Amino acid sequence: SIDKETLPQQPAIRYNSDPTLEELRVRWWKQNFDKDPQFVLAVNDCLTTVEIVNAGLGHAIVTGDILKKCKPEIYRQMIYDRSGNPITRSSHLICKSAMLGSSTVAAFIDFIKYFFHVDQNQEEDPELRG
Fold first, then answer.
1. pTM of the model
2. In whole angstroms, what is the distance from residue 4 CA to residue 92 CA?
3. pLDDT tens by residue, 67-92
């Protein structure tokens, strides 16, 4: 297990990610710790980070889809905000309206809805229409 109290003193691995993920990581860290992470290494991508963590050389905050690349013995822990809610971020599928007439695109969208358990009420964000 991870001792959250000593996490700021433990070696951390930093990797380049998109700005929204980086903002989530920084915000979570600042909500939980007074000290900055002890970055011992900075790498270009999350897969390299996972290999470094797999080798036992530090910890990192990664997205859920990357966890399958971790060795089974690597400890994983979901991170939560101050209210006890898991830290998550939204993803959107976007395409031109004209593409919706294509049976291939429609089949792909149906697959995405099924795979990600999209509720029909969640399908469209009116603010994103254009």
1. 0.69
2. 32
3. 888 999 999 988 998 899 998 887 78
CA distance 24 to 26: 6
Percentage of the chain with pLDDT > 90?
53
pLDDT tens by residue, 28-42: 999 999 999 999 999
Contact 49, 21 (CB under 8 A): no
Q: How far apart are CA 52 and CA 12, in angstroms?
A: 10
At position 107, the amino acid (one-letter code) is A
Amino acid identity for residue 113 in this structure? K
Q: Which residues of 59-78 are buried (b: 16+ CB within 10 A; e: fewer)?
A: bbbbeeebeeebeeeeeeee
CA 49 to chain centre: 14
Amino acid found at 95: C
